[in-house]
Amino acid sequence: YHRLSIMSTRYSRGYSNNENKCLKKWNANGKMREKSLTMDTLNPQVKAVEYAVRGPIVTKAGDIERGLQQVTTTYLPIILTIHINTSCLYVQVVALCSFPELLDSSSFPEDAKQRARRILQGCGGQSLGSYSASQGVDCIRQDIAVYIEQRDKGVPADWDNIYLTTGASDGIVSILKMLVSGQGRSRSGVMIPIPQYPLYSAAISEMEAVQINYYLDEDNCWALDINELHRAYQAAKEHCHPRVICIINPGNPTGQVQSKKCIEEVLHFAYEENLFVMSDEVYQDNVYSPDCQFHSFKKVLYEMGPEYFNTVELASFHSTSKGYSGECGFRGGYMEVLNLDLEVKAQLVKLLSVRLCPPVSGQAAMDVIVNPPLPHEPSYLQFHKEKRAVLGALAEKAQMTEQILNTVPGIKCNPVQGAMYAFPRIFIPPRAVEEAMSLGISPDMMYCLRLLEETGICLVPGSGFGQREGTYHFRMTILPTTEKLKVLLEKLRDFHIKFLKEYASLEEPKR
Question: InterPro entries annotated for this entry (predicted)?
Answer without folding.
Answer: ALAT1/2-like, Aminotransferase_I/II_large, PyrdxlP-dep_Trfase, PyrdxlP-dep_Trfase_major, PyrdxlP-dep_Trfase_small
